[in-house]
Amino acid sequence: MLNLRPAVGRVVGPLAARLLRLGLTPDMVTVAGAVGAVTAALALVARGHFVWGGLAVTLAVLTDALDGTMARLRGPAGSWGAFLDSTLDRIADASIFSALAIWYAGRGHSQVLLCVSLFCLVAGLVTSYAKARAEGLGMTCDVGIAERTERLILVLAGILLTGVGVSFALPVLLWVLAVASAVTVVQRLAEVHRQATAS
User: Fold this and answer.
1) Quick one: which of 41, 73, 79, 150 has the fewest CB in 10 Å?
2) Tell me: the pLDDT tens digits for 51-71?
3) Candidate list 64, 67, 89, 93, residue with the active-site label
């Protein structure tokens, strides 16, 4: 798993502080990021505008680091912000793979990659659900080779590279992501089983 938090924190910290001084809240940034990601994915990526769509989605999902930093700077808060952030993250992620599925079902002309895109969508949701459910049962589930950061890096790199003419990048990275997501689901199932059966 990648640990980009320290580097990202140094970059977005000053911006987060400035937004707070302007009166914006972490929830506002969370909602704006999710709306931006969904709109860019469905309006641009789904129609094959991979460069502008990829850049717009990347900018939108980066607000995940920004709203988290804003929340930490504001100090202790209720659980609503964390719940909202996690829920909208799932919607934003699903919109990216839905957009790819739409593309491959239409002008992308690939039933196989349509299925791979849908598999990545479902596997990503299951990965997140497994962690949430485990934590709800009092266990931890932080294992896995493809958490949200890794999934986003792979799919957005594939979109952007394809947009600039590396046509094989998105198919290859979608397959890599599909395999990595499947492995992650198995890893999380195994980890929860280990904890649940430990005596």
Assistant:
1) 79
2) 999 999 999 998 887 888 888
3) 89
* 169 φ/ψ angles, rounded to the nearest 5 degrees: -65, -50
Provide the token pair at 139. 């266990």
The range of the structural domain enclosing residue 130 comes to 5-197
* CATH number where 98 lies: 1.20.120.1760
The per-residue pLDDT for 3 is: 47
Q: Provide the number of structural domains found in the chain.
A: 1
Confidence of residue 1 (pLDDT cuts 50, 70, 90): very low
Residues 141-150 pLDDT 10s: 999 999 998 9
The enclosing H or E element of 55 equals helix 50-61
Q: Which two tokens stand for residue 126?
A: 């299951």
0.85 exceeded by the pTM?
yes
Distance CA 23, CA 5 (A): 24
DSSP line for 129-164: HHHHHHHHTT------S--HHHHHHHHHHHHHHHHT
Contacts of 38-41 with C-beta under 8 Å, sequence gap 24+, read 38/91, 38/92, 38/95, 41/92, 41/95, 41/96, 41/98, 41/99
Per the listing, tokens 């957009």 go with 99
d(CA 149, CA 141): 16
Report CA-CA distances (Å) from 181 to 31, 85, 99, 176: 26, 21, 18, 8
